[in-house]
Amino acid sequence: MAAASDRPSVLTGQAVNPEPPAKLKVVLFSGGSGTQSITEAFLRHPQIALTILINAYDDGHSTGRLRRFLPGMLGPSDVRKNINRIMPALERSQKSLKLISDHRLPVGIARADALRSIDAIVGGDYSPLPPKLAAAFPQLACWQAARLNSFLATFRTYFDGCEKTGATFDFTDCALGNLLFAGCYLDEASDFNQAIDAFSQFYEVEPGRLLNVTRGENLFLVAEKENGVVLRNEADIVAAQDASKIAQLFLIDQETYLTRIENQPEPEGGWGELLRRSARVPLINPRAGEALAAADVIIYGPGTQHSSLFPSYMTAGVAETIAANTRADKVFIGNIHRDFDIQADDASDLARKLMAAMDRKGQLQVDWRDVVSHFFVQGDNANAVAEAKYVPFDESRFAFPLETVKVRNWESQQGRHSGGYVLDELRQIVQSRIDIELAAVHHMVSIVIPVLNEDATIEPVLKSVGALDFQPLGLSKEVIVVDGGSADKTVERARSVRNVRLYELPRPLGRGAAMRLGLEKARGNLVVFFPGDDEYRAEDLATIVDTLVHSDFRAVLGTRTVKCTELSDRLKAIYGNNWRLYLTSKYGGILLSVAVLLLYNRYVADVFSSVKGYDTRLLQSLNLESSGLDLETEIVAKLSRRHEYILEVPVDYKPRTRAAGKKIRAGDGLRALMALLRFRWKR
């Protein structure tokens, strides 16, 4: 039977094809690695069409040497980095191309050795290459190998011609991808923007996904600091320097820069007059302008602000086009950690400098409301080893209305934004004004471990949990330990393990209270609970998280009953000759399952399992109240009343004895049963 959308039209009798789903158009001002996690999160979302804008003023190290070796070419480094980030990498050939592109020739490599490697690649003899690199070339598709060889052959021909005039190139620490781009640039008649499109096609990236913000003017970046020191190139701007703030940026044309500034003595009276007289304003790339004009969201990304970002905003036409787009949300994302170029800047300084770049030092009158609608700034540095690392936010100093500011801990890894947090906030901002219903995408799992007197087991448990890798699922993770008032060394041992967030209840309140505090502190949009007593396998968390990601279930419990061949024997091993506890445990668990069935018309085999996972927002919306083990049945009761599906998956379990520290008591089961009754009718 034909799908409803393929049925013939009543009027024409022809099939009606469904309209392609609408996408949110996002334009991201980017640089090198600063926006990596944000880019990755946006690329994973099927309803987002992402365009990345860069400038290419990079002139450090091998990139700078290439710019001087090919006069007129801007820096290829950020082009390569961004394309490698957004290219598909599912096929073996794509992964191999990415490896080849990122491979750097050894530091100090001799000219002859570098040429021998290039000639070997072009000639198809990979034996002189490092084994891992050599193994990648045969994995390329035929068309990839042919195009790659063409780029390198073009560069080699150009190199030979330069050497005849006495010029040469130092290959030390140069990425092969940069040499490939140089060959592509030469093939494209030395048109930088056209070369980006051709290079994108080579990496199977849709042309226009990555754009240079300018028309390709070959300008060089210079900065002047508040103390009068002049940083004469982009490499110095991003390198270690004194803490004086950078006051101004200048874009200088190639001839002036190479003949009067680079490696030249400081003029009498200083550099100021020459820099101001020689400064140029590049023009916006028309395709970048079109992307900004059509954007639903414009993001000023984090990164090396004075090299990767502020110079992009100084381009003529950028501020004008952004201001004219009155539909878009425009979000400035401040840095988390300080870089060398912002050692003394706070969030307010960065926001003011954004506006200074937009109005091009007073040449253009821009109302800030026309170019920024929201500021995302770092706060609540719960993981801070030293606050000095973080860009501070002081609301009393912030130059713009606080209602435009979103302050939170945006950090997922040390110094890196969580792209998922950014995406979640943007969903909430744009959803109220657009017709596109943006789906939530999972980005982080919070592993909450409630503990009480577990000093014998907490370290191995934390290490096993820390070893879990959720990256194949597109997830980062955080580990949260909540101590319920331990009298032993549990807290000290937990604190000794890296990358663990530790919280302590003010007094012993029960496992439920610890779980609720962990839920309150969780930053992931998935939350899983795991005990610190080493009775469960950490690997089973992967099964639960995978199920949450790849199914429609928002509540997944790990059940111990499936992987148990003989329940009675297992319980006897736990309780020994204490028949009262044996009978209470065995039939108490069955009673709870039956009670759930009778009261809520569903069967849950293992209500007291300590391994379980939930959609964070779902769990937070339950307004949980209980503080002991009765929290487990409160969750089941409230999910059941909402008619929310609960899936149980088997998990392994190695029980410990009462003597070894098992804490559950008969009273816990009774309170859990009463909770089932209480929440059945409670409004």
Kindly describe this structure.
The model is unreliable at 1-19 (pLDDT under 50). The protein is α/β, with parallel strands linked by helices. It is globular, with a radius of gyration of 30 Å. The relative contact order is 0.07. The strands form four sheets. It has a seven-stranded parallel sheet with strand order 3-2-1-7-8-9-10, with helices on both faces. It folds into four domains: 21-55 and 283-441, 3-Layer(aba) Sandwich (Rossmann fold); 87-207, no CATH class; 218-279, no CATH class; 444-681, Alpha-Beta Complex (Spore Coat Polysaccharide Biosynthesis Protein SpsA, Chain A), CATH 3.90.550. α8 (176-187) crosses α9 (192-202) and α23 (567-575) packs across α24. The protein contains 27 helices and 19 strands. β11 and β12 form a beta hairpin. The longest helix has 23 residues, at 142-164.
Measured distance between first and last alpha carbons = 46 Å
Structural class: alpha/beta
Q: Count the strands?
A: 19
Report the principal-axis shape: globular
CATH architecture of the largest domain: Alpha-Beta Complex
Indicate the CATH topology of the largest domain.
Spore Coat Polysaccharide Biosynthesis Protein SpsA, Chain A
Question: Could you give the order of strands across the largest sheet?
Answer: 3-2-1-7-8-9-10
Q: Any idea what the radius of gyration is?
A: 30 Å
* Biggest sheet architecture: 7 strands, parallel
Q: Which CATH class of the largest domain?
A: Alpha Beta
As a percent range, the share of helical residues equals 40-55%
Let me know the CATH homologous superfamily of the largest domain.
Spore Coat Polysaccharide Biosynthesis Protein SpsA, Chain A
Roughly what fraction of the amino acids lie in strands? 5-15%
What is the count of distinct domains?
Answer: 4
